[in-house]
Amino acid sequence: MTGGAKDVILLNQVYTTYEGADLPVIQDVSLHIKPGEFVVIGGPNGAGKTTLLETIAGLLPVVNGSVTVCGHDVVSDGCTARKKIGYVIQNFDFHPFTPFTVEEVVLMGRYGKIGWLKRHSGYDMEKVTSAIDNLGLTLIRHNQIGKLSGGQQQKVLIAQNLAKEPEVLLLDEPFSNLDMVTREEVSNLLCEIADGGIPVLIVSHAFDALPNRTIRVLVMQNGKIILNQQSDPSKVGNLVRTASVAA
Ligand SMILES: Nc1ncnc2c1ncn2[C@@H]1O[C@H](COP(=O)(O)OP(=O)(O)OP(=O)(O)O)[C@@H](O)[C@H]1O
After folding, report:
1. Is the CB of 49 under 6 A from ligand 1?
2. Is the ipTM reported for this complex over the cut 0.95?
3. Structure confidence by residue, pLDDT tens digits, 145-198
4. Using a 6 Å cutoff on CB, does residue 16 contact ligand 1?
5. Which of 40, 53, 104, 151 would you label with 219, given CA atoms 20 to 30 Å apart?
6. Given ligand 1 and candidates 49, 87, 90, 224, which is best to mutate, with the most ligand atoms within 8 Å of its CB?
7. The CATH number, out of the four listed (3.40.50.300, 3.40.30.10, 3.40.1190.20, 3.40.50.150), of the domain defined by the range 1-84+166-177+195-247
8. What is the pTM of this model?
C-alpha cells in the first residue's frame, strides 16, 4: 500500500521445522510485508499456516534462510524482535482456577515494556484500559480469566496483544470463537490497526468476516506459499478455494 515503504516483515527463502520433525514444515518461503498491509493466510488444514505465523513470531528453529521483523533477525536478535510482535494464538485453554483477572492478563502484554521487576505506570494502565474497552471487556475487567467463555477469553488475548503496542500483529483464527456482532467489531478494530500502519496478518477460514479494504491473500499448501496477491475482501474466499483445488 505504501509505495516505497520498507518491508516490516521480510522472509528470505525460509525453511523452518519443529523439534524432532524429519522434514522442514515451511519450505522455501519468501515474503515481503509492508506497513499497513492486511494479510489473510488461507489454505487447507495442515498446510502450514500456523507454522508460518510461528516462524514470523520467532518461535521455531530456522533451518535455512532468514526472517526479519522491523529490521531485527528473529533468531539472532529474537528478544528485540519479539517485543515488537503481537501474536494471538489459536489454541488456548485457561484452567478454571487460573488466578488472574482480565485486567491482569491484559497488563501482561505490557511486561516487555515495563520489565518484570518494575512497577507499571499510569501510561501502562491507560493502554490496558483502552484495550479492554476496545474489546468490550469493561464490565468483566475484574473477573477471573478461567471462568470466562472461549470467546471472551479470545477477546482478552487480543486485548493483551493490543496493550503491548505491537509493530506487527499476528492472529491465528481470531474470529473462530466470536459471535457475528463481535466478529464485525474485531474485524473493524483490526482494520483500524492496519490503516494506522501496523501490518496485520491473520490465519482464517472465516472469509465473510474480513474488513472492507484491500487484502493481501496468501494461500499455503504443503508448507509453501502457492498464491500471493492483493484482492478485494469479497473475492478472498474464491481465490483461496480455487488455488487450493488447482494445487
Ligand atoms: N508441534 C509440532 N510438531 C511437529 N509437527 C507439527 C507440529 N505442529 C504442526 N505440525 C505439522 O506441521 C504441519 C503444518 O501444521 P499447521 O498447524 O501449521 O497447519 P495449518 O495450516 O495451520 O492447519 P489448520 O488449518 O488445521 O490449523 C502439519 O503437517 C502438522 O502435522
Report:
1. yes
2. yes
3. 999 999 999 999 999 999 999 999 999 999 988 999 999 999 999 999 999 999
4. no
5. 151
6. 49
7. 3.40.50.300
8. 0.94
